[in-house]
Amino acid sequence: MLVRNDAPAENLLIAGARVVDPLEGIDTSVDVRIDNGTIEQIGTALDRNEHRVIDGAGLTLAPGFVDPHVHLRVPGREDEETIASGTAAAASGGYCTILAMPNTEPVLDSAAMLGALIEDAKREAEVSVGFLAAITKGQDGAELTEMAELAEAGAVAFSDDGRPVTSPGLMRRALQYGAVSGLKLALHCEEPTLSGGGHVHEGVVSAELGFGGYPSIAESVMVERDLALAAYERRPLHLLHLSAQESVDALRAALAAGVEATAEVTPHHLCLTDEAVRTLDSNLKMNPPLRSDDDRLALIDALRDGTIGAIATDHAPHARHEKEVPFEAAPFGVTGLETAFSALYTYIVEPGLISLHTILERLSAGPARAYGLDEPRIAVGKRANLVLLDLNATWRVTENGFRSRSSNSWLLGETLRGKVRTTIADGRVAFE
Ligand SMILES: [Zn+2]
Ligand SMILES: [Zn+2]
Fold first, then answer.
1. What spacing in Å lies between the alpha carbon of 294 and ligand 1's midpoint?
2. What angle do CA 79, 154, 366 make, to 5 degrees?
3. CB neighbourhood size of 359 (10 A)
4. Confidence of residue 323 (pLDDT cuts 50, 70, 90)
5. Range 23-51 burial, b when 16+ CB lie within 10 A, else e
6. Which residues keep their CB under 5 angstroms from ion ligand 2?
7. What average pLDDT does range 220-234 have in this prediction?
8. How far is residue 36's CA from residue 290's CA, in Å, rounded to a whole number?
9. Is pTM, for the whole model, over 0.85?
10. Is 47 in a helix, a strand, or coil?
């Protein structure tokens, strides 16, 4: 289930924007009228009806974004993020819905904990939020959680994100129990005896820097295992943050063979390679690591042709003191909610690698579909989940410009094109 604070829905008229919804086949300048949070009319020169008017002239209106992979850090690390700050960050990034990962302190592995988080979200969440629960108790890979009970309590899916389910037998049982709960498993694919101790992609850069390598095969061997188990059990699964060409090849082959798999890729894996790590900036240390340009191009191809259907930020806030240490000692993870669209627009859309329409679909309907959530659409009768974008804006990413409690962004100091102006989430303005 998705939850949000219960502020009242709004009456809005978004006037004169370029309205783009690739799935509805719309790309034209029209007005959109929202009555009590629901899209009621799309057309030219619509009556204002005493609605609040949002001037869309020169701006682009698209379906709101859905981030299937966010670390809200609650409970346990409220110094790094909270439901309030994380969902405010999401709203400023154009997201109307986010899904939170369960590798918290303690791990979200019980219905009681999930119930408490859902109650908190009803008070604090600026956009719709859903919670994934752990696959194994304490994410220790030994014993499955009470999946049916967690599904009943409102879990959106299951994941041990942050670590893999290493035992193939347990993974198989998780797929079988997942079938009973009706929910999907979302898998962090990493073979720990192959990745162990690695800080960056195993290749020329790791060799030159003298860092322990985290090879592509540490990911792809687990992707292959999990896809093989999913095929055997005839169960769907979702692959988190793919980074390697070999993983994409395995996914493509499994899809061709009829496996029901979905996958996501992060903006940083689409925009950067391990060459960036030469700066030794700890904000470039993430799991899985940045890989080669061949990997990056394979991810771009897979996103373009739909093999990978979703973009996910893997927004991973860290306290400043934790990242301000030598590269090898720093924790994995970077923030991403507030820069995802602008980074993708600057690095991927403007250079012509993927069209704006495709990027918008992969930021919105794609991730919603992966988890069986309602797809944001610009159509009469749909709840208003919308983002208003200024594609001509230029802005600089600065440390104090974030709504997130953390600022460990790989884009600090960079100038980006394209900016989110307004986000409407579940019928209400969540950011402007
Ligand atoms: Zn992960
Ligand atoms: Zn993650």
1. 21
2. 85
3. 24
4. very high
5. beebeeebbbbbbebebbebeeebeeeeb
6. 161, 314
7. 98
8. 44
9. yes
10. coil
